[in-house]
Amino acid sequence: MQGTLIGTIIDWTTAGRPDRSAYLIPLGMIYIVPVIIFLALWFIPESPRWLILQGRYEDGLKSLSWLRPDGADIDAELAEIRQAIDTEKTLASGVGVLDMFKNPVDRRRTTISVCAVLLQAASGSMFIIAFKAYFFAMAQVQDPFAMSNVLSTAGMTATIINAFIVVRYGRRRVLLLGGLVIAGFFQLIIAVVYDRNPGEIVTGKVLVALSCLYMVAYNGMIAPYSWLVAGEIPSQRLRSYTFGFAAAAGFLGAWLITFTAPYFINPSALNWGPRYGYIWFPSCMISAAWVYFFLPEVKGRTLEEIDVMFNERLAARKFRTFQVSQHVAGENVGKSSIELGVVEAERV
Fold it and tell me: How does the record classify its membrane topology (predicted)?
């Protein structure tokens, strides 16, 4: 979001230039961002799982100690990770893309990951993020580029606040559900206000205020948790395939909305303008219903515990209160859904 705000400010300051520099300067500034990211990466600790996977156990222990709060049982978690990795190496042989859909448990986890990322597109966010200045211009807001800066600042503030909430609270289902409901009603109110009083100064002010509140809900409750869920839910042996597939679906959804939005809001096309929010209200409500009925709560769970709960075929609302036996968790760590099914059949 910091990059978005900086880009918006640059667009605002160069918009009045009469020559090619009006667009060349913003494009040239893009090359600065990769350099900043490259330098920042040196200060981020490596993944403990990756280090252990490479046989660097001491480095993995140091990274895990840095990431976990004081008092955490680091040695026990390290042993659990090593056991899971050893089992994964055995199971990973012969695993392919289609394995995401062959088994009911893996198919469920793939579907949840994909749908979680698609929540961003379903909230209508790309419509406001990509076309905020044009959207404000259609609503006859004074100085739409300046108001875009206000919108980006609101979104960045929500992102910073969320960095503290995710650690202390972090309830995925509650935050996603609440964010989608709030975003949906803001989209509806924006559409209704513009529909009733188009072209008025007070309408423009209301639209800017509601758009800022919408971005707070989206950046603080929807965007971060949709990616978080998509990374937590996949099975360990299919994680790279599942998360990659979910990310591709998410980017496809974002592109589709960005591509089609001008046809709805342009005066030369459908000329809906801010009335485009009428579409996103039901979309947000349907998404919120999906979160309530199908998205499991995995806050505070290890990846191994998540494996056990999915293999138990629990309903989404039972994940939060389910108690994973240490014996069962240790026994089933890293096993595929098929293997666990065989074990269950043998017990019966």
Answer: Multi-pass membrane protein
